[in-house]
Amino acid sequence: MSIQVKLIESPNGIADCPGFKTSGVACDIRGKGDLELLDLALLTSEEPCHAAGVFTLNDVCAAPVLVCKEILTSPSAKVAGIVVNSGNANAATAEQGMIDAKEMSAIAQLETGMGSPFLVCSTGRIGRKLPMQNIKSGITIAAKALSEESQNSLDAADAILTSDTGRKCATAQFTYEGKTLTVSGIAKGAGMIEPNMATMLAFLATDLDVDNAALKNTLVQACNKTFNRISIDGDMSTNDTVLLLANGKSGLVPDDSPELLQAFREAVFMVCDTLAEKIVGDGEKITKLVELIVEGCQTEDDAEKVARCVGNSLLVKTSWYGSDPNWGRLADAAGYARIGLKEACFDIHYNEVPALISGIPQDNKLSEWKAIVAKKRFRITLNLNQGSGSFRLLTSDLSEAYVNFNKSE
Amino acid sequence: MSIQVKLIESPNGIADCPGFKTSGVACDIRGKGDLELLDLALLTSEEPCHAAGVFTLNDVCAAPVLVCKEILTSPSAKVAGIVVNSGNANAATAEQGMIDAKEMSAIAQLETGMGSPFLVCSTGRIGRKLPMQNIKSGITIAAKALSEESQNSLDAADAILTSDTGRKCATAQFTYEGKTLTVSGIAKGAGMIEPNMATMLAFLATDLDVDNAALKNTLVQACNKTFNRISIDGDMSTNDTVLLLANGKSGLVPDDSPELLQAFREAVFMVCDTLAEKIVGDGEKITKLVELIVEGCQTEDDAEKVARCVGNSLLVKTSWYGSDPNWGRLADAAGYARIGLKEACFDIHYNEVPALISGIPQDNKLSEWKAIVAKKRFRITLNLNQGSGSFRLLTSDLSEAYVNFNKSE
Questions:
Q1: Interface contacts (A, B; CB < 8 Å)
Q2: Are residues B91 and B232 in the same domain?
């Protein structure tokens, strides 16, 4: 009998997982004198814990990303937790950025008195030095405030947000041999969201007793199917980071139980999938969430190329914004993926309603297409009927408000 | 002594070149009852002429593109001219689209009574059948109206426009052995403008006596350096076509004169370059034209990747729109080209003013950057200092008005 993995209702973030403490505080990292806006979070494990990370592939990689990679270089590395700020990405900040990221990690360790290093993350404006005085006072307060309380955990989830309009939490649980195993997670997104993550941070915690290698393997698999299949604006960020911490507190060890490991993977996938969808659903000034399914390609890579061309096309996105079922723009964008699309084999559906079958427009369905693209969420399926490769991309429309929102920072 | 090639002032389009006749008429192709809007043009040569074409690389390729390619298959093919409509792209129109494109070409030949086939082009909405009755009556009127008059030539230049706000003409001339050689051209652009052309049409005419192979060679070289280095919205169209007709009327033959051939190439380049810049300058609802220069890459291909990532980034384009010198977004986009950019070697300049030198922000120049990005046209140079590969891309900002303009058709 397979293990039932379930998402819990009303997740509270990291503190849903036993053995983790959190806090979220305000220290005016944006330098605007706002002492209400939470902008620094600490996530810690009672005991040093195993950890794994997945990071941006951008050549311009923020200093904290490099510091995390360094800490996780050793296969047996254990960490104390994560320190993270919003409001400043500490990216494109040259040598000073590396010095600051390392100092941020060291201050967290000092202020919490823990024996293992802290992973460190930043998100926000690129190209500005971290305000280290504010960071330092923030960490000092945050260290004192650490607790297992739900409110603290929600504060931490709020403190990592930038242009997000709401916090993003997800927690999955299951029972195995009478014990409960938890995977909890929080994320931030909103803009600069594309392939291989992009301006998003996600932090997951679990009480499974598992080593770094198995954690990494699980996390990579989950990211490839979730965070790496969302796109808001096609911009990959310098700071994308997903971290997974495992403190072993459940007493469950997957070493000799493929069934347990499988259930754990499922739980990590479910948390990542839920957070990924929340990120797209809260994309900057979006009005529509579109599930784009590309099928019938010769390979999955081909399907991904088509999905990304269509999902990132300005003309496609603006037509969705206008509730215009302009399938011609979809066909155009699919064509410039240049994977050998044959028009005479090409089908397009809005939800279940055909727009194009074997390259022939189904114009009598126009009113049905219109009704579908007027919805806040809909599905578009492109079937090239040339093979069995497929790819699913969660994407969004592009609004005038997005342009206005991003025209200056 | 090298030949002086010059662009003429106040070009009048195709009719600037001796031996070509044109007309532009209104035949309500959009089906809106508008009998004022010019939407069909004929361009003809007195005598059958040589021709070459460069076309979209989109897998979804409009029917008229396929018909042109077919006509130009024979290396010695001669054509009567070009028939072109705006308002309907005749793309993604399946079998009927091919039948219609061929008929459009045949009607032009019949109505003009010429002995060679017509190349055929369409531009406008994708996925709708051509209104063949209107096309037919349009061609009939246009054939009767054909003349060498400048006003006719301007009407033809207007008839090919879609969302353009103004006509686009350029003419280059030079003198060789006492004879004048002319290259004249017209274009349309506005949206769906990206690599390898994209929703653009350009038609060039010359009175050089030259065969199809040399024409093609010249045209490909010119396109690669001009129309293929502009981007407005990153969308490659189904209909991109550049055609070059040569009627030999000047009596000049380049066969034994590399100098003449070189001057001709220069003239074709100058006309294409001028039209390309006019296309970006008239991009849909743009407010700024940006000359993006990427230097110091290991190869030209790498430089092109960086230029396209930066020039097509929504976050970069929106920041330009807002006159925000957000060089961090430039660095981010350059980084996700993933060509191995080294931050410590990376320089960014706005015009002549440094923003980043060897990866170090030049924050004391902030007011100067701001003044530059507030201009309607400026230059940004990214130097990776890792080699000698470079690429120049003409691109634009992205405005709220673009989104509004394209949200429905």
A1: 221
A2: yes
